[in-house]
Amino acid sequence: MQTSQFQKPNPHYDIIILGASGFTGKYVVKEALKFLNTPSSPLKTLALAGRSHEKLTKTLQWAAHPSSPPPDVSIIIADTTHPPSLLSLCNQTKLLLNCVGPYRIHGDPVVAACASSGCDYLDITGEPEFMEKMEVKYHEKAVETGSLIVSACGFDSIPAEIGVMFNTRQWVAPAVPNHVTAYVSLESDKKIVGNFATYESAVLGVGNMDKLQELRRSRPRKPRPVIPGPPPPKGPIIEYQEKLGLRAVKLPSADAVVVRRTLVTLMENPHGLPGINESPEHTEKREAYWSSVKPAHFGVKIASKSLLGIYRIIGVGIFLGLLSRISFGRWLLLKFPSFFSFGWFRKTGPSEEEVRSASFKMWFVGYGFSDSSLASERNSKPDMQIITRVMGPEIGYVTTPISLIQCALIVLSQRENLPKGGVYTPGIVFGPDLQERLQENGVSFDLVSKTALRGRPAA
Ligand SMILES: NC(=O)c1ccc[n+]([C@@H]2O[C@H](COP(=O)([O-])OP(=O)(O)OC[C@H]3O[C@@H](n4cnc5c(N)ncnc54)[C@H](OP(=O)(O)O)[C@@H]3O)[C@@H](O)[C@H]2O)c1
Fold it and tell me: InterPro entries of this UniProt entry (predicted)?
């Protein structure tokens, strides 16, 4: 195995979860405990890190309930405002899972510590500016030290990344996809609620949109993926998806941006990213996987059966768009989250019952050409539709921990099959291995239909 001056001889822990006492962190701990010291699991040693010993102890008790807390899970005090405490974490672990957000406020020093020490890092951010900034600032250092840094390993953006690849892999040559739209539908017989920090991240993200544009303008343009056929039509603001019986509006989440970054990396590395010391079986698996993934335009919409549901989503979007750009507006939004989100976000987060009863469906409606030669004809229109679906439990506190922990288990069990280091999107790193693991843990992937079309489909 290749070694580097940054490689730590034997870190004490396999995983440290930073921000374990947070609303999401505690569910991540619960998910991690399912794999701690179980047969064939690579997770043998675990520690929880954060600012308060008392809160972390309570987290462990809550996560282990009804069993008693495992005696060998350590608690470590660390603060994102105290870089030496972060470096100390990095020196003690193979992999750091960062659950401290909003990431635009707390994330940079954590990534800096990992990149400089060679520690591997995963997080659950859905903040594009943070992700792109980390790539600019730390990619080269992380390549040099052998630190694998992967953001967006939660609901943002694992179902979208693995889901769009699943859809494009259903297009068997000579058929090619042109565009795929994901329709996210949240379901529950109780109220659907998210915790405040996710709302805060969104408010700060929308309020600082100009900074993201500025960052993008300052970077050299990367070549765009080559996609057969013309770009998709814009379509109406509120779309009625007849086949799904859903109305939908554009969701400006991180998913489309993350998927685009994965496709750009794939274009530069058509067989995916080779592992540091990859087994021949994995090379074969990786190359077969990536040769079956095809580039396509991708967008995400939030869907609802009722028009009223769509109007409420638009209402929240208008509040965020108008108020988040001025400081008094941001203050108002953050002071009264429940009011401005029509009850979708609460300072206290959802109850355990609300988490248990929620679920999601994400429909991927792909349009393309039954023969790639049709794509280059003048005024060509897609003549084929493929619908696939990803389904799973509640998004923020069940699917997110499942996704993060499965990514973490891939890092622990297959480190030699993964790139030496660098800042990457989850799709390009975990693509070949993740879908099967998600399926084994309650997130399903189905092919719904393949249909020949006569006219041009609605967007
Ligand atoms: N991708 C997704 O789909 C998804 C889903 C869920 C959450 N998230 C993201 O995850 C992040 C966390 O959300 P949450 O609802 O769990 O937030 P939260 O309940 O407020 O938890 C934040 C955690 O960060 C810790 N923390 C805050 N400041 C710190 C500091 N200076 N040093 C060390 N630790 C510090 C807190 O510790 P204390 O206990 O000491 O205060 C707490 O453990 C947000 O950015 C959210 O958007 C993403």
Answer: NAD(P)-bd_dom_sf (IPR036291), Saccharopine_DH-like_oxidrdct (IPR051276), Sacchrp_dh_NADP-bd (IPR005097)
pLDDT of residue 129: 95
- Reduce the DSSP state of residue 223 to 3 states and report it: coil
Check whether domain 13-154+400-429 has CATH 3.40.50.720, yes or no: yes
Tokens of 158: 């694992």
The residue behind tokens 């400089």 is 116
Name the band, by pLDDT with cuts 50, 70 and 90, for residue 41.
very high
Return the biggest CA–CA distance within the chain: 68
- Where are any strands of DSSP class E within 307-435? 345-346, 358-369, 384-393, 422-424
Pocket of ligand 1 (CB under 6 A): 19, 21-25, 50-52, 55, 79-81, 99-103, 106, 124-126, 154-156, 195, 197-198, 201, 396, 400
Nearest residue CA, atom 24 of ligand 1? 100
The tokens of 29 are what?
């701990």
Cβ neighbours of residue 84 under 8 Å, at least 6 residues apart? Answer: none
Q: Where are the alpha helices (DSSP H) in 253-306?
A: 255-268, 280-292
| Confidence at residue 407, expressed as pLDDT on a 0 to 100 scale | 98
Atom of ligand 1 nearest to the CA of 154: 1
What pTM was estimated for this model as a whole?
A: 0.95
Task: Note the pLDDT of residue 459.
Answer: 43
Please give the single-letter amino acid code of residue 431: G
| H or E element at residue 115 | helix 103-117
- Could you identify the atom of ligand 1 that is nearest to the CA of residue 153? 1
Start-to-end CA span in the chain (Å): 49
Protein residue with its CA nearest to atom 45 in ligand 1: 101
Tokens linked to 194: 């998210």
Q: Supply angle C-alpha 163, 165, 169, rounded to 5.
A: 120
Among positive and negative, which fits the CA dihedral 200, 205, 408, 142? negative
Q: Say what the pLDDT of residue 455 is.
A: 55
Q: In sequence order, what are the beta bridge partners of 444?
A: 391
Domain residue ranges in the chain: 13-154+400-429, 158-394+442-452
